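Incident log, structure service

09:12 report received: a user says their structure output differs between two submissions of the same chain.
09:20 pulled the input from the user's history:
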Amino acid sequence: MKYEQLAREIIANVGGKENVSSVVHCITRLRFKLKDESKANTEVLKNMDDVVTVMKSGGQYQVVIGNHVPDVYKAVVAEGGFQGQSPVEEEEGPKGSLFNRFIDMISSIFTPVLGVLAASGMIKGFNALFVALGWIENTSGTYQILNATGDALFYFLPIFLGYTAIKKFGGTPFIGMAIGAALVYPALSTLTAGKPLYTLFEGTMFASPIFVTFLGIPVILMSYSSSVIPIILATFFAAKVEKWLRTFIPDVVKAFVVPLFTLLIVVPVTFMVIGPVATWASSLLGQGSLFLYNLSPVIAGILLGGLWQVIVIFGLHWGLVPIAINNVATMGYDTILAPVFAASFAQIGAVLAIMIKTKNQKLKSLSIPAFISGIFGVTEPAIYGITLPLKKPFIISCIGAAIGGAIAGFTNVKGFIIGGLGIFGIPSYISPDGLGMDLWGALISIAVGFVTAFILTMLFGGIKKEQSVTTPAAGSPAASHEIAATKLQTEEVVSPLNGEVLKLSQIKDAAFSSGALGFGLAIEPSEGKLRAPVSGTISALFPTNHAIGITTDSGTDVLIHIGMDTVQLEGKYFTAHTASGEYVEKGQLLIEFDIEQIKKAGKSLTTPIVVTNHNEDGLELTDQKQIKTGDSLFKLVH
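09:34 re-ran on a clean worker, output below:
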């Protein structure tokens, strides 16, 4: 671990782990509650290379680290063995709208596996392409090994997500992996090959064959391979159960008894509750879709196409697949899956726009493999890695898919086989009687979905267009100046608040007033609305919404900290209107906060706005005493 040694030294100099009652972190500092502050070696900590300073405030012993404090915090928790112990206080989860919280959760869970997810999708797509071109046979060893390589992550996805999801919820990673492994355990899938013991709810749309029981309770088996929501719900439940068990199980047996009972409780509940709910929800969706299509193909196309990617995220699409298979078997064609064919193309249309416009190199590097795998119908890397975290492009892709679905419904497109994904799904719409409107309707549907999502994302996707660099004409004064010296670039940071301008030295917080965390100015706000001082990507949004970081297109890091010690309010009186990873335009509303309630809570609202990766010499500060949002606060000369 990169900060293992630093963590060890910090723990030793706060008086050892036995002196720590709790530890949390905010956006810049570790916040310890010590049993005896006199045991801490404050001067030693202050003189450590990776420690900015040490402060004592609000009953907390604060070790100021800087922007990489989350990584140091993880190392401190691991080194001190604090994780999972009841005295340690964890920060509450993200506040804000339910949608924003859901996006934050999904992004956090999928971010660690995005690179491998994109790579696996590309391997699957290229393997299918090699077969289509006749380069390899789908019975060859080459195909089988490549297929296993590309498909393994998707098939065993619950195991991978078991690890990342339970970490997000504060549980033990290997417990999450064990739950995921149980869901895809091969022997369970073979049980459905035999004759069912009986059928639960026979004669209704919820009829479910029962192949196995647990303590006499019927278990509805389903395929959990490639599923997402079941393992997320299971690990959320597991983290709660684990935390509860740790409150009363003795330390001497906690290491194995807690996992034992967590698994014994969570895995059966997952099979008996989460599985049936997912199965019944899928069945309900399938029957409802069939009824809606018979009522109006166009409306069904709009709803199915527009909501398809959301349906897939929740694993409810399995309710439509049996209906489609049955339609092909009994009628020779299917119309239920045709409206959703445009969804994957709308998704990659949005990704292509992001790939063209973004200046964020990490986002661009992820977009390329996500686009390639999406061509072949593998859209998970695009959804979870690109469009869903950015929100607007995901919504736009759903709009493109809805329009494509409406066209498929209007032209009554029929699929004649349950075929491949992406471009390999196109032959599914070739009628046994030859080329006809089914194929042309499908092609028009996916083309319109792709183009619509691409154009709308380019225009309204929230991704700032790359600025072209204009080269001065030869002989011009500008050209001559550039020959004589390197051209200086000026970047403006505008005020994110209305209020009174203060120098950093006036702040009653040594970390900011000393310039240790960066250079800039502070504002005493008169209105509880924080707007973006620059255009850029939200690089950090603390869960309590009191602090936010933005990285501009040129790489400048701007940190805004609303008030002093406001982290202790645990998110009360703060509402975020953005999310980590989202691109924001200068002047866009980011956070609202209740000035009166924060003041009543006894917290200062003095808000520093600092640049963390620029020296003080190149900073031109405003001389205004009162300022409004949008007014120039300071300029940086690069």
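09:41 both user submissions now match this output. Likely a transient worker issue. Closing.
09:42 reviewer note: The longest strand covers residues 519-525. The CA atoms of residues 207 and 289 lie 18 Å apart.
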